[in-house]
């Protein structure tokens, strides 16, 4: 236990004033493990070398003292990650509710609108921006 406590205090001293681990860093490590697992089957040397850049960058980001730059990178990453997960959720719902609903993208604010599947032309109001537009359901 003495050893672990000493190791912990050394780690805390090292990380003092450093940026540390954020979501982007964690996901870089996770991606590195996934690539490593897949590459265990493929055994490609180039993939191995390129994938080593991930923990290297993640480690350098952790030790960085430029908090503003690192957190702005993390914010950009979180936005991209959130947008793509939203897109996949909508696609999943689109397939699941194919028989009962249709999904349309608002031309004004590009948010998704769920419309009950009823044959014919309908006027729909966007719940986000309030703009009305026509949809045709066959
Ligand atoms: Zn809208």
Beta-strand percentage range: 15-25%
Low-confidence segments, given as residue ranges, are none
Largest sheet geometry: 2 strands, antiparallel
The residue-averaged pLDDT reads: 92
Indicate the structural class.
alpha+beta
**Ends distance:** 70 Å
The total count of strands amounts to 4
- Gyration radius over CA: 24 Å
Rough outline? elongated
Order of helices and strands: HHHHHEEEE
Bound molecules: zinc ion
DSSP summary: helix tally: 5
**Widest sheet, order of strands:** 1-2
* Overall number of structural domains: 2
Helix content: 55-70%
Write structural notes for this entry:
The protein has about 140 residues and is of the alpha+beta class. The protein folds into two domains: about 1-95, no CATH class; about 100-138, no CATH class. The chain is about 60% helix and about 15% strand. It has five helices and four strands. It has helices at about 1-15, 25-40, 45-50, 55-65, 65-95; strands spanning about 100-105, 110-115, 120-125, 130-135. The strands form two sheets. The protein has a two-stranded antiparallel ribbon with strand order 1-2. A two-stranded antiparallel sheet has the order 3-4. A hairpin with a 6-residue loop joins strand 3 (about 120-125) and strand 4. Helix 2 (about 25-40) packs antiparallel against helix 4. It is elongated and about 75 Å long. Zinc ion (ZN) binds near residues 106, 109 and 131.
